[in-house]
Design goal:
The complex is a heterodimer of chains A (682) and B (155). Chain A is α+β, with helices and mostly antiparallel strands. Chain A is built from 23 helices and 22 strands. In chain A, 47% of the residues lie in helices and 22% in strands. In chain A, strands 14-18-19-17-16-15 form a six-stranded mixed sheet. Classes of the chains: A alpha+beta (682), B mainly beta (155). Chains A and B meet through helix 12, strand 21 and strand 22 of A and strand 4 and strand 5 of B. Chain A: The modification Phosphohistidine is found at residue 46.
């Protein structure tokens, strides 16, 4: 396919437009009168249609075209938004998404859109019939372009144009109507028109033209055309500028009277005839878009380029190699004690540190990418479940490593489904319990230290401890005796063990209890953790802690006998050197009294069966680590120091090794293992 | 030899016996180097090395096949093998030449080699009076196969 090089761009942009459609339609549902939103939706649909048609995806173009017609009707007050319309539009958007996904996976994006096209048509016509019955040509309005040039060429203006014209008046711009006539001998009319528009766009904004821009481009007009312009310049100057273009016969510029027109607008709009055509509206949409772009483009949007993620990964891999060599150089220079070399290496270290920040930042993506599909999902689910839910999203701009973003979507979907299904109650139950009928679901992301937290909080029923305990006992996850000793939090953690579901009825929504343990596993495989807080009757809070990045971390290198291990700094509270006499015994376990707390000790030598070479002395070095509330002290022989390391996997063959989360390559080229402090504490 | 397919193989030595690994699976032959022990893994897994930036697990084939350990010598080598999903290194006594083994002279492994039912031997070929055993690499790597073999020797 010759379009191949554009295909990728097309898919990416289509996805963005579909997302924007989703977002805006949701807003529209809440504020049916919001014309800006309708405009946004219209523009997205329109761009999508244009792109699809260019790429030759006819079904896609057809569907968007119909959608556009409906939106156009809404925009022109011919239709009022209701839930049914929103539903159909959502269905259409879903189908669009399906088609784009199909295209992305190599399909041709064809799909049976007839049903939806008919539905959209019906919506469109319903209104047409009720308000414009008198107009026999109403049905053809979507097909035929108009050239009803009356005395006033701009008798019909839509809400957008009105707003712009109004605002321009307020801001000291003047609205002009331009009648431009080309020379009879003009050969390339379209080119002249283009030049005129270029001149006009330098001095102001073209709001509307008659005939439409498209028709002008196709030379689908005689010699004269009319333009509605907003500018700060005066009429004479504009005229001069236009007349500088050759082959222009005349240009008549007169101020455009908005007020006079405004008064009659409501009635005029009511008996809109076929002249209010989607084709012309499209150009208006385009003009408006161009206008907003030129307004905001410079100030707001910074320049960006799209980069294939593979290239970034390649860059990251190369940089990791560099970090390893950097470590090696540091070591060599420390051994040689050569002043000049040391200085150079220090400089290099600083620069590569900066480089590291930049590369890591490049891979950071706002969590919004994951969050933005949730409003749709929550809307649909709450409808299916007959619940009222208000979803609030905070901190969508929080950034996370691309790899984490890719993995975190499914677990979040699951948790949200869980909250909606099991957490938030139905409106009547909520009323009985004296709560607001509308449940609230809070999705919140924020940075803290080297971690990103994502919280899902609902004000629903909360978790019933007894129910969980009973279930766990009957599923033989725990014994009755154990149950009594567990803290609330430990009990809540049980709902994430495999084969567990407390819902009395299995629903389609949150599955069969195979889910939450998958959620937990996914999050832990990302180096994160999940905790649950809950108060019965008041709601639950699922809190996910994730590392900022997966590939380069800070560690403390320690030596156990002759072996080197890396302990992630994120899990270290502090290090201490204690006398062996301070080690106490409790239940045959070694513990120490650390700042008033009893902390169990773990001898890495024993856990990892390290061959013994060194003699024990009276002092031992201890790394105090923590996992949530729990702490433990790791006995090691020596602290080597803090270092940035590149995380590498042990590979598929070794798979999961107890107590080890991965490996890294040290400055001397040797491999050191990274401790998995989470499993060690358990 | 028309119409026959030859199996090009690297010949390795273990306890004076010769084994063959298909040459297209070989990623390199390395000298012995520092191996980082990985705790809590099978005995024959010696640990991991840094192979040009990739952490690669290293297996001791002598231990895998239940032979007595010997001290490493100048000829001790690590053979890097590309498996489908990962690379792995084998410690062997020595690695020699590449040999063409015609398909038709490969015979199925005899049921009993010594005392162990060795499912890690795919076949045996006799080339110029040399007896060469072709390794079944999946089973060489398999922990189950190892444990089965060990039970066999203990009986």
């Amino acid at each position: 396919m010759e379009n191949n090089e554009y295909l990728e761009v097309f898919i990416e942009e289509s996805k963005e437009h579909i997302q924007s459609l989703n977002d805006q339609i949701l807003i529209l549902e809440n504020e049916p009168g919001n014309m800006d939103t309708v405009g946004e939706i219209f523009r997205s649909a329109h761009t999508l249609k244009g792109m699809a048609a260019t790429m030759g995806y006819q079904d896609l173009a057809d569907l968007t075209h119909k959608m556009e017609n409906v939106l156009d009707a809404v925009r022109n007050n011919k239709l009022s938004i209701n839930s049914d319309i929103i539903d159909v539009i959502f269905q259409a958007v879903d189908q669009l998404e399906g088609m784009v996904v199909d295209i992305a996976s190599g399909g041709d994006g064809s799909s049976d859109v007839q049903e939806l096209v008919h539905k959209l048509q019906a919506i469109e016509n319903n209104e047409d019939l009720s308000t414009v019955t008198a107009t026999p040509s109403a049905e053809v309005n979507s097909v035929q372009a108009t050239e009803k040039a009356g005395a006033n060429h701009f008798a019909k203006l839509d809400e957008f144009e009105l707003t712009i014209l109004n605002q321009s008046n307020e801001k000291g711009f003047t609205n002009y109507e331009l009648n431009i006539r080309l020379n009879e001998n003009c050969l390339l009319k379209a080119a002249r028109v283009y030049m005129v528009f270029e001149v006009l766009e330098q001095v102001g904004e073209v709001i509307k033209s008659d005939p439409t821009v498209q028709e002008l481009e196709e030379e689908n007009f005689d010699l004269a055309f009319h333009v509605l312009l907003v500018t700060k310049l005066d009429a004479e100057e504009i005229k001069q500028r236009i007349m500088k273009i050759s082959e222009i016969e005349e240009a008549i510029i007169s101020p455009f009277q908005l007020r006079k027109w405004d008064e009659g607008s409501s009635s005029e709009q009511q008996d809109t005839k076929a002249s209010e055509v989607s084709e012309s509206n499209e150009t208006q949409g385009e003009n408006k878009k161009a206008a907003t772009n030129s307004n905001n483009g410079k100030s707001v949007a910074s320049k960006t380029i799209r980069v294939n993620i593979d290239r970034l990964d390649g860059l990251m891999n190369l940089f990791e190699e560099l970090v390893i060599d950097r470590g090696r150089l540091e070591q060599i220079s420390a051994n040689l004690k050569h002043a000049e070399l040391q200085e150079t290496v220090e400089r290099m270290t600083r620069i590569s540190g900066d480089l590291q920040n930049i590369i890591l930042n490049m891979r950071m993506v706002p969590v919004e990418q994951v969050f933005n599909r949730f409003p749709r999902m929550v809307r649909q689910l709450s409808k299916d479940l007959g619940k009222k839910v208000n979803l609030e999203i905070i901190g969508a701009e929080t950034e996370l490593d691309r790899t984490v973003i890719d993995e975190i979507g499914d677990p979040l979907v699951h948790l949200i489904r869980n909250s909606l299904d099991h957490g938030i109650e139905t409106p009547d139950v909520r009323r009985e319990r004296g709560k607001d009928e509308e449940g609230s679901l809070l999705l919140k992301a924020y940075h803290s230290g080297n971690h990103v937290f994502i919280e899902i909080a609902d004000d629903g029923a909360g978790i019933n401890r007894q129910k969980v305990v009973n279930k766990a006992i009957s599923n033989q996850v725990i014994t009755a005796e154990e149950a009594n000793t567990l803290s609330d939090e430990q009990v809540f953690q049980l709902i994430m063990s495999s084969g567990f579901s407390t819902a009395d009825k299995i629903s389609d929504v949150s599955g069969r209890g195979v889910g939450l343990d998958v959620v937990k596993n996914t999050i832990e495989s990302l180096g994160g953790s999940i905790t649950i807080e809950s108060k019965e009757g008041e709601g639950s809070l699922f809190s996910i802690q994730l590392p900022l990045t997966l590939s380069i971390i800070s560690v403390l290198l320690v030596e156990v006998e002759k072996e080197k291990y890396a302990v992630p700094l994120s899990s270290i509270i502090e290090t201490a050197i204690i006398n062996r006499k301070e080690i106490l015994n409790a239940h045959n376990k070694k513990v120490i009294d650390f700042r008033g707390k009893v902390v169990p000790l773990i001898s890495l030598k024993e856990v990892f069966e390290v061959p013994e070479v060194e003699e024990e002395d009276d002092l031992c070095s201890v790394v105090i680590i923590r996992k949530g509330e729990k702490m433990a002290g790791l006995i090691v022989n020596k602290f080597i120091g803090q270092q940035e390391i590149v995380l590498k996997s042990l590979g598929d063959y070794l798979g999961d090794v107890f107590g080890i989360s991965g490996a890294t390559i040290l400055g001397d080229g040797q491999v050191a293992l990274i401790l998995d402090t989470n499993t060690l504490i358990n | 030899m028309e119409g026959t397919k030859n199996q090009q193989s690297i010949i390795i030595e273990l306890e004076k016996e010769e084994y063959a690994i298909p040459v297209e699976l070989i990623g390199g032959i390395e000298r012995m180097q520092h191996i980082t022990r990985v705790p809590k893994t099978a005995e024959f897994v010696k640990g991991v090395i840094n192979l040009r930036g990739v952490v690669t697990p290293i297996l001791d084939l002598r231990e895998r096949f239940g032979m007595d350990p010997i001290a490493q010598t100048d000829s001790t080598r690590i053979i890097i093998v590309h498996m489908e999903k990962f690379d792995v290194g084998f410690i062997v006594d020595a690695a020699y030449d590449v040999l063409d083994i015609p398909q038709e002279i490969i015979e199925p492994a005899p049921k009993v080699i010594g005392t162990v039912d060795a499912d890690y031997i795919e076949g045996v070929a006799k080339v110029d009076k040399r007896l060469i055993m072709l390794l079944q690499l999946e089973n060489v790597l398999s922990l189950e196969s190892y444990e089965k073999a060990r039970e066999g020797t203990h009986l």
